Amino acid sequence: MTDALSRPNADPTRMHSVTPETTAIIDMVLDYARRRLLDTATPLDKPMPPAELRRLASGSISEDGLGGRRALALFENVLAPACLTIDHPGYLSFIPSAPTKAASAFDLIVSATAVYGGSWMEGSGAVFAENEVLAFLAREFGLPESAGGVVVQGGTIGNLSALVAARDHAARRLADRGAARPDRWVVIASREAHSSIASAARVMDVDVVTVAVDETGALHGDQVRPALEQYGDAVIAVVATGGSTNFGIVDDIASITALNDEFDVWLHVDGAYGLAAALAPSARHRFAGIDRADSLIVDPHKWLFTPFDACVLLYRDPAIARAAHTQHAEYLDTLNDRAEWNPSDYSIQLTRRPRGLPLWFSLAAFGAAAYRDAIEDSLSLAQRIADEIRRRPELRLVRDPQLSVVVFEREGWDVSDYAAWSDRLLDEQRAFVVPSSHAGRPNTRFAIVSPRTSFELLVGILDTMR
Ligand SMILES: Cc1ncc(COP(=O)(O)O)c(C=O)c1O
């Protein structure tokens, strides 16, 4: 270990001051970011084996540093090409991300301005702008004007934070009635609910009761009712999915939220991927009933064209979430004693980057109509390519797409055929389409998010399955 005393002439401000060295680093980094953002032909790239990366990129951290130029060259020439280009039009796996140019560029400003997004005291301007986005989305979903929340890291944290608020609310209500807490709390969700719901339940040490879905994969209120009757006061929340990850299926939210007429239960909608489609006039009807949700999430880094990572978490009554999440400490009381909006009060986190700002900037710059158009484009492309799949005798559509996920099988292919085909597509730098499965049968899926994904590109991929 180097003793500070052994570097008597070291300048501790070297990294923070404006000098020829730091100016050159800023110019190089901004130039690289600019080239990347304006490049229309960035390849898909592919992961590199660990041994290869060790050979090419080990040893970058040293006592004296590589210098900005060499470190950046290492990233540009070795590390970046070992990362998939998620915003490539041929990236069609999992749930892609396709940030707008404005949102990606503005993310640089979020870093450059060193804004803290946890409290109004420290970041009121940023918090105000993020709240404009939250209010816009709350209006789109029909939530009351008093709704509010926070932009968190991702859907997993959003779902966990909402369920923690719901449990806190359930516990307070039982305490108010003088009733005992149940031995085990319960979350009711469908079999098709995202794995983050089970993960949240594990973190919270509560049980998930899974309820069967209909033949289209959607959860209905009728299927939820018996579980509500059975588990009564032990139920923290019912989780409906607004666009399942595997298929993009939207639960029958109206019939689920209508259960509130009979059972006073918290209704959470996990719309991490799909709820963005509520902005599109042609798909809005699929989310009927969402205006009655107690909490919901939608991930801007999925279909609202924002860079990683961002999840909008909204509560019908934010005061409930504040009661559950506000952290108390002597040094924080100065924040908590004020009646101001502190985003940290609404989720599992304290320090936060104002990660809603790139979406705010892009929405403010282009307007909501541009978002509606881009989402409509993915929706109609999904229908067109589903028609094409139906026409091809060697292919079978597993389910009719509702949003922008299209799942299909190739007759006669087993898992290894899908894997070899998928590897070939990536080796040829044509597309990233990984194998998937449903009910034990292998398949593959197109998850379409980028407006740059074309019908011709998808048809070209289908042609490779002949
Ligand atoms: C429906 C749904 N919920 C939750 C998540 C988890 O979101 P994140 O990956 O941002 O944590 C996903 C991710 O794909 C999802 O599709």
Automatic annotation (TrEMBL):
Decide whether keyword Transcription is in the record: no
| Cross-referenced Gene3D superfamilies | Aspartate Aminotransferase, domain 1, Type I PLP-dependent aspartate aminotransferase-like (Major domain)
Sites where N6-(pyridoxal phosphate)lysine occurs are at 302
* Pfam family membership, one: Pyridoxal_deC
Assigned keywords, A-Z? Decarboxylase, Lyase, Pyridoxal phosphate
Out of the domains of life, which is the source? Answer: Bacteria
Set out the biological process GO terms recorded for this chain's protein.
carboxylic acid metabolic process
The molecular function terms of the Gene Ontology recorded here are:
aromatic-L-amino-acid decarboxylase activity; pyridoxal phosphate binding
The prosthetic group or cofactor this protein requires is: pyridoxal 5'-phosphate
* Keyword Disulfide bond carried by entry: no
The entry's family comment says: Belongs to the group II decarboxylase family.
Q: What is this protein called?
A: Glutamate/tyrosine decarboxylase-like PLP-dependent enzyme
Organism, per UniProt? Microcella alkaliphila
